[in-house]
Amino acid sequence: MKYTAVIMAGGVGERFWPKSRQHCPKQFLSLTADGETMIQKTVKRLLPLVKLEDIYLMTNADYLSLVHEQLPQIPEENILAEPCPRNTAPAIGLAASLIARKEQDAVMFFLPSDHLIQHEEKFISALQKAAQAALQGEKLITLGIQPTYPETGYGYIHYRKTSGDDVFPVEKFVEKPNLPKAEKYLHSGEYLWNSGMFIWKASSILENIRKYMPDLFQGLQPIVKAYHTAQFEEILYQQFPLLPSESIDFGVMEKAEHIFTIRGDFGWDDVGSWLALERINPTDEQHNYFDGEIISSDVKNCTVSGNGKKIIAMLGVEDLVVVDTKDALLICHKQQTQEIKKILAQLKENQRFELL
Amino acid sequence: MKYTAVIMAGGVGERFWPKSRQHCPKQFLSLTADGETMIQKTVKRLLPLVKLEDIYLMTNADYLSLVHEQLPQIPEENILAEPCPRNTAPAIGLAASLIARKEQDAVMFFLPSDHLIQHEEKFISALQKAAQAALQGEKLITLGIQPTYPETGYGYIHYRKTSGDDVFPVEKFVEKPNLPKAEKYLHSGEYLWNSGMFIWKASSILENIRKYMPDLFQGLQPIVKAYHTAQFEEILYQQFPLLPSESIDFGVMEKAEHIFTIRGDFGWDDVGSWLALERINPTDEQHNYFDGEIISSDVKNCTVSGNGKKIIAMLGVEDLVVVDTKDALLICHKQQTQEIKKILAQLKENQRFELL
Fold it and tell me: What phi and psi, each to the nearest 5 degrees, are found at residue A216?
């Protein structure tokens, strides 16, 4: 049975500014001590289960050279550049169509390129379990994550605990909750975090797209027909922008039947902000995460990421995120890492586009 | 009547690290928006009263080129490089001896090179008043500063309020007090801050050195005799290190008679730490002092000094001092600016001498 993976690498994460920039977003950064970038880790951890020739990357023209540079081992024809961002449904539809041309019932792992997973064997075993379930019937499976605290920044999956199996029917996808709701979800034991990772047969997701997103299904046909022809790129650039911009969650998952989830417990982290660094890296006794040459006295709960070229001296501070790069320095209270967009807005207003 | 000035420019201020370095201490930095360095300001504000040819600079070999570069208008023979640091008494003794050779009763203003004065006319008028008093009898006059808050970082002058005159007898010099004492001093109205600025006739201070520091007086003679000869530098380098290392405060002022003070009220600031920047420069509505390209949101009471080459983005922080330079970045809570020496100690330990 063929296992394939489709990795989304078109995102423009702004929350890791000033290290992430429009020309080099988070998935192409290394945020761990081993020096591997997020997307390199994403590909590497799949290799026990998926052959290189069956790994597809959805990106955009701006990042094509980064993808080639960081992942030279991926066959060139597996790297698809979307002409413009149309959310996840068109990307999934296109990838599923191309995979189905080769093998209709191939299992497809749809994965973000910028998440971290601590326990890779557990992750692989969850994917295997999901693949087995996806192969039976027409199940669409989403990887849920066992919540460990009342996070308000994620969507949740309300699932029905059934006995015997590890694959549970999904009752409902729910939006990012407020804190009281998140606490309720956490304690009920009936909710999982929505990781944005999906497993299905190519034929299953295509059938559901045909049913619930007929415009998308129709729009994909000329592109799929042109694959492996000289006109492919031209037709992709003509047709892709006409596809409906929609997420697969809203377009299919919230409407379809046979939606299931698997409880993942493999140390998942979406690395959603600079705060993730202290979760995914070792910290010192004062709960500091220091990357670079840092001299400190009376400093605690700080996350500091240097650029390797400058000494950073810190005295008597706490709860700060400090990120130094060649042309920009960020000093941010930990409670305000979600407000980095305010800085970016001001940079835009000041027409400092080179810093975005 | 000849007015002369002797400016001390040999200090190695560590409290402005990382902008100040061993090879470029505070007096050679510009800490105000006008771009003038501290020592340039010190010379400039004297010009209504003292001719350029009567301004002497005491520095050391390491800073000779900086002095020449920043003060090309000062005659070269007025710039004296101490072979090694011997505190203030030998420097004052040497300068007074050289001045007395030209005119025994010349008035000598002895001044630090790294203080700021807001109201320069008031300062000049205080110097004039002191000079007049110094010319009568053998008075040694110290400029006291009217305290405005209970500072614990300065020495104090206990003086006797006498009526009629503005020149008051000094009862006693007192060491840096603790806070309760500083508060007592402030409210008593009988204490002034010791600014380290002195006014006397060259002959008066020499007579007192002869009396209270006879070793110093004797040791100076061969150096003074060699002045304006080809052997001067050789003899200076031989003899100066043999002079007793002592402050003029301890060696003379605390022992001599005829010690007087004038109450200065001319916006004096010793610019003793990074905290001074917000006193001596305009701040914004959130009490921030920003020098450089800074983008901020929800930031208050911060002092930020960039190096002009990098944007600094700040989010949700307060009470920080941030100083960015080419090779070092300081992030310090305002209450800990006096602890910068801990950073320097660590740099020494790590043998990062190029950063000191």
Answer: -65, -45
